[in-house]
Amino acid sequence: MAVDGQTSSAVAQDFVQFALDAGVLRFGEFKTKAGRMSPYFFNSGLFDDGAKIARLAGFYADRLIESGLEFDMIFGPAYKGIPLGATVAAELARRGRNYPFAYNRKEAKAHGEGGNLVGAPLKGRVLIVDDVMSAGTAVRESIAAIQAAGATPHAVAIALDRQEKATENGVDVNHSAVQYVRNQLGLAVIPIATLDDLLSYLSGNAAADLGAHRERVLAYRTRYGA
């Protein structure tokens, strides 16, 4: 399968079910950073115990291995990317694929080892691991840090691609943050699941309380999709 090809149906559907069971994926009315009223909300901060984050790391590992992506190390951008990158590195090592891991601080440390990078030295092709991509800001900051260290930003792994238009200066644009990172910054982006996968799950789920959300999610996708 190509790195930027369609998400694996089985992995994506299992992940959507897992996110619902964990309370990470919810339906209702939620205001996004862009000021949109979204019929669903994905809060990765609620992967909040050892069992949940271990299983989440397993989904990342499944997708990375399936994609065939080759890389040399993992980088977790502060803050949510730090535990994600660490647990994904641990899960891949458990599967016999051991990679160096590093992360950044928001503010440089003036004592001890100093600087704003922690962990293995940044070198080679670097995989960035984060939860979602709203504006691509964290990715751009990560790219700058990786390049400053003389390494190569290579790809980004995320949990969910919302597949919706990004905003610039408060105005909708015709591309999503993921499309911007792929097409303008030249990095592969590997999501565990996408909004289309969520719609597929809702279409195929017999539970009336879930199926009822499909039309609202589809209308949102139609209006804001990229």
SSE order and pairing:
Elements: H1 9-21, E1 25-31, E2 37-42, H2 50-67, E3 73-76, H3 81-94, E4 101-109, E5 115-119, E6 125-129, H4 137-148, E7 152-161, E8 165-168, E9 171-176, H5 177-183, E10 188-194, H6 195-204, H7 208-211, H8 214-224
Parallel strand pairs: 3-4, 3-6, 6-7, 7-10
Antiparallel strand pairs: 1-2, 4-5, 8-9
Helix pairs in contact: 1-6, 2-3, 6-8
Characterization of this structure:
Strand 3 (73-76), helix 3 (81-94) and strand 4 form a beta-alpha-beta unit. The chain has helices spanning 9-21, 50-67, 81-94, 137-148, 177-183, 195-204, 208-211, 214-224, and strands at residues 25-31, 37-42, 73-76, 101-109, 115-119, 125-129, 152-161, 165-168, 171-176, 188-194. It is globular, with a radius of gyration of 17 Å. The strands form three sheets. It has a six-stranded mixed sheet with strand order 5-4-3-6-7-10, sandwiched between helices. Strands 1-2 form a two-stranded antiparallel ribbon. It has a two-stranded antiparallel sheet with strand order 8-9. Mean pLDDT is 90; it is low at 1-8. It contains eight helices and ten strands. It is α/β, with parallel strands linked by helices and 226 residues long.
